[in-house]
């Protein structure tokens, strides 16, 4: 027992509290595997029996292995798997058939081949409201709560997972508010500052402490008798300009009577290969590497978002039936995965999500399947790597061999409203993201929306014929919405379109 305690202390395994160190016999737990990014990738390649993987392509158009940007070569297999045909070739003719047969088939294939399955034994999360602060955002009084989700790690105490998030709601709301959950870095918008009186107490105590530490400092304070080392941050700006479409996303949401929650993905699962034996994936696997069907980081982040929604269901300030999920880029992918697999999310704003997000996997334009197979495979199920295999035990596969595609992910969201957002390459929302490949998926997914009695973009579902509209065109009339703004790699310029659209589709009163 002594030896194992010493080991834990020496190795500095962050997973244990002091009390646990004393009580636990660590030798009963396998040590967590420590991989470099390359080792984790190589391990999966070996598990899958892939001998040669096609290399990822370069986003630099001048590079010898430049990505394809020639539209005439972008659709090597233009026929998408049909959303409304079952695996055994039957036409889906009723909603029951959709919910009972076809949708589960799509879930199964998307989990197995693309994003990974949720393990059966994921431990529970205990939520702790750590700090409640009353603040102002511009002129709006708000309540901000830091909430930590402690994941039960009794099955493997060597790994700790504490989900970190901050919920912000307008303080003067008449009832529970809709909330947009966003993947990002949680922080208090404007921590409340001590009053003048309290500041005086803090300052005199602080000065005393410093002088006690170094008596020579007294001479300095005597030289500047009016100086106060602890100062207040500026208070709320009641003269701030009224909120407009140019205001920060958070201010626009609050002004519209929404709350928002920022959840830190890295507190759930690290954004790299090496972290795959840690975080929630590592905790469930007891520190061991993934198997090919296991969940990847996107699914893990989405799982965390669903747990955050569990918390919101218990918070009386929140209308938990009207919680949306938002993210940009890799977090746009995570927002799509969240919305597709967790039916309790009411809506989604999916920003510049590219490959692994709303863009069709089988499109060859900018980022390709090979990029995710050879690069950030930890985002996906290990199995996804098969589609980049040139030589393997199972032969050669590419994106065209995928039994499902991103239009199916949108179909899993149906009939719940989804807003797909992009910017423009000229402003930094790179061509690499293949905006058009996402537009095609949205067009194709319209079939599922209409089948379930919802509305799509209002054009046909012929994804090979429909032209992507010029940027700044509003396609916001349906439950599926599309808008490419004239900004960069962000969804902020679309927030002023998202909010009224979401209010309409969620039936919020003005
Ligand atoms: C890279 C990657 C994209 C990803 C993006 C991001 O560009 O190829 O798939 O969306 O990073 O998340 O910033």
Record the SSE blueprint:
Layout: H1 2-11, H2 18-23, H3 37-47, E1 50-53, H4 95-115, E2 125-137, E3 140-151, E4 162-170, E5 177-183, H5 196-213, H6 217-223, H7 249-255, E6 259-263, H8 279-284, H9 297-312, E7 318-328, H10 330-341, E8 347-351, H11 369-374, E9 389-392, H12 406-413, E10 418-422, H13 435-451, E11 480-484, H14 495-505
Parallel strand pairs: 5-6, 5-7, 7-8, 8-10, 10-11
Antiparallel strand pairs: 1-9, 2-3, 3-4, 4-6
Helix pairs in contact: 4-12, 9-10, 10-12, 12-13
The structure holds alpha-D-glucopyranuronic acid.
Describe the structure in brief.
With about 500 residues, the chain is α/β, with parallel strands linked by helices. About 30% of the residues lie in helices and about 15% in strands. Helix 10 crosses helix 12 (about 405-415).
Q: Which percent band covers the strand fraction? A: 15-25%
Query: Whole-number radius of gyration?
Result: 25 Å
**CATH homologous superfamily (4th level) name of the largest domain:** Alpha/Beta hydrolase fold, catalytic domain
Strand order of the largest sheet: 2-3-4-6-5-7-8-10-11
Textual characterization of the structure:
With 510 residues, this protein is of the alpha/beta class. It folds into 2 domains: 1-30, no CATH class; 71-190 and 239-506, Alpha/Beta hydrolase fold, catalytic domain (Rossmann fold, 3-Layer(aba) Sandwich). The chain has 14 helices and 11 strands. It has helices at 2-11, 18-23, 37-47, 95-115, 196-213, 217-223, 249-255, 279-284, 297-312, 330-341, 369-374, 406-413, 435-451, 495-505; strands at 50-53, 125-137, 140-151, 162-170, 177-183, 259-263, 318-328, 347-351, 389-392, 418-422, 480-484. α13 (435-451) links the parallel β10 and β11 (480-484). Residues 1-14 have low confidence and may be disordered. Bound molecules: alpha-D-glucopyranuronic acid (GCU).
